[in-house]
Specification:
The chain contains 14 helices and 12 strands. The protein is α/β, with parallel strands linked by helices. Among the domains are: about 130 residues, Rossmann fold (3-Layer(aba) Sandwich), CATH 3.40.50.10860; about 150 residues, Rossmann fold. The strands form 2 sheets. A 7-stranded mixed beta sheet has the order 9-8-7-6-10-11-12. Helix 3 links the parallel strand 3 and strand 4. Helix 3 crosses helix 14, helix 6 crosses helix 12 and helix 6 packs parallel to helix 13. The protein is globular. Bound molecules: nicotinamide-adenine-dinucleotide (NAD). The site of nicotinamide-adenine-dinucleotide (NAD) has 22 residues, from helix 7 and strand 7.
């Protein structure tokens, strides 16, 4: 089918929005998506930018820029995390919001996609400043957020405490407790058992599914994990429990390597005490580049965007890459990885365990009922295994990479829903 829509501009420098658009375009072309649906799905439904003044501890007022982008609400209320980092900007939030749309469609939960963020360094803010900033942001977004409308969750730089402040501020505005307005809350406020581990657990389940297809034996396989926060540390622990030897881990302080396998419990304990891996003696220090190009079987990037690029992709030795982070591979590295025969389980599939259990949290809040951890894990594992199989099947049907297949599955679902609902 001839496509008339304009091709995305060539990628000049690394930008997650360009990477997202490249893949969206490629999948839409293979799917033969009609031009009007392409145009409708390409842009976010809503982008809100706010400037929130906050009184700092020393009495001066600082203005912070915050964003919330709703990419799509076709499948249901929009869902997506809130990121606090200096690097937060509108393009990044737009890319992350679109990825949420595709992710929710792949795992088959009734949510659209959104993302938010505030440009700030949370490590430089006191707990009081963080609370005032979060409450001011919630107030500014009161017409965007809502349990039936748009539901935030934690992302980099935010945590269950941040969600508790959003829940409280929103509830005060509503006049009644509204736990379902956010997920990733502390358990006592209606958080779900299993939510903290959910993304790492989904990474482990996807890794196992991919290893089975590639006939790789976990107990004789090695792995390297970039990033040792929520996703990285839990993925590392669960993969170790599956029998893989985790030879390298890293965080913002550097990368650590031990041929015989790092003791992940010891590393977790070290980070709990010291806040980072800096000074960790359980492995020798290597560079970030060395970690990514180590001679291991499985590589799990679970830190930042654009870590695997055309600069290092041809030096990657892992047979399997499982993307714990959002956007860790720049689009310009895709072809190199494909040509090398590396299977990449893409972010929008591999890290979707988090949003799946967020959905369970929201369901439990709306029911006013709590599930056991065993029930949460069982249901989440089932969702992840099924999603992997669907994407794998599409990759065979269309003879494309797992990444393109994941976009095809997602775009097909959102496009058909949009058509049924109608576009005026
Ligand atoms: P986090 O803040 O808990 O951890 C981030 C980790 O990355 C930290 O260990 C940090 O030190 C490390 N890091 C930062 N810069 C680094 C660098 N230059 N090199 C190596 N490590 C570096 O964040 P998280 O929740 O684990 O999120 C990580 C990624 O996973 C993000 O892309 C996020 O969007 C994605 N993600 C998270 C979830 C979730 O449920 N938490 C769900 C889906 C996707």
């Amino acid at each position: 089918m001839k496509m008339k829509y304009t091709e995305p501009a060539p990628i000049s420098e690394l930008n997650p929005l360009d990477s997202m658009m490249e893949r969206f375009h490629e999948a839409a072309r293979i799917l033969g998506l009609d031009e009007s649906t392409y145009e409708a799905l390409k842009s976010p439904e809503k982008s809100v930018i706010v400037n929130v003044p906050v009184t700092m501890d020393d009495g001066h007022i600082k203005v912070f820029e915050g964003f919330r982008v709703v990419h799509s609400s076709k499948l249901g209320p929009s869902k997506g995390g809130i990121r606090y980092a200096n690097s937060v900007n509108l393009d990044e939030v737009k890319a992350l919001a679109a990825w949420m749309t595709w992710k929710c469609a792949i795992v088959g939960i009734p949510y659209g996609g959104a993302k938010g963020g505030i440009t700030c360094d949370p490590r430089e803010l006191s707990p009081g400043e963080l609370e005032r900033l979060t409450r001011a942001f919630t107030l500014a977004m009161r017409d965007v957020f809502g349990p039936e409308r748009d539901i935030p969750a934690p992302d980099m730089g935010t945590n269950p405490q941040t969600m508790a402040w959003i829940m409280d501020e929103y509830s005060q505005l509503s006049g009644y407790a509204s736990p379902a307005v956010v997920t990733g809350k502390p358990l006592v406020l209606g958080g779900s058992l299993g939510r903290v581990e959910a993304t790492g657990r989904g990474v482990m389940v996807s890794t196992r599914s991919a290893m089975a297809k590639l006939k790789m034996n976990p107990s004789t396989s090695t792995c390297a994990v970039q990033g040792f926060g929520n996703v990285g540390s839990i993925s590392a622990k669960l993969l170790e429990m599956q029998g893989l030897k985790v030879c390298a881990i890293s965080d913002v302080s550097g990368a650590y390597y031990k041929k015989g396998g790092i003791d992940i419990d010891a590393a977790v304990e070290f980070v709990e005490k010291n806040k980072s891996l800096e000074g960790f003696k359980g492995g020798k220090i290597i560079s970030n580049d060395e970690l990514l190009t180590l001679d291991v079987d499985v590589l799990v990037p679970a830190a930042l965007e654009d870590q695997i690029t055309e600069q290092n992709a041809d030096r990657i030795k892992a047979k399997l890459i499982v993307e714990g982070a959002n956007g860790p591979t720049a689009a310009n590295a895709d072809r190199i990885l494909n040509d090398k025969g590396i299977m990449v389980v893409p972010d929008i599939l591999a890290n979707a365990g988090g949003v799946s259990v967020s959905y369970f949290e929201w369901v439990q809040n709306r029911l006013g009922y709590f599930w056991t951890e065993e029930r949460v894990n069982r249901r989440a594992d089932r969702i992840m295994k099924q999603a992997f199989e669907n994407v794998y099947k599409a990759s065979k049907k269309y003879k494309v990479s797992m990444r393109t297949a994941a976009y095809i599955v997602a775009i097909d679902k959102v496009a058909s829903t949009s058509k049924l609902r109608g576009i005026f």
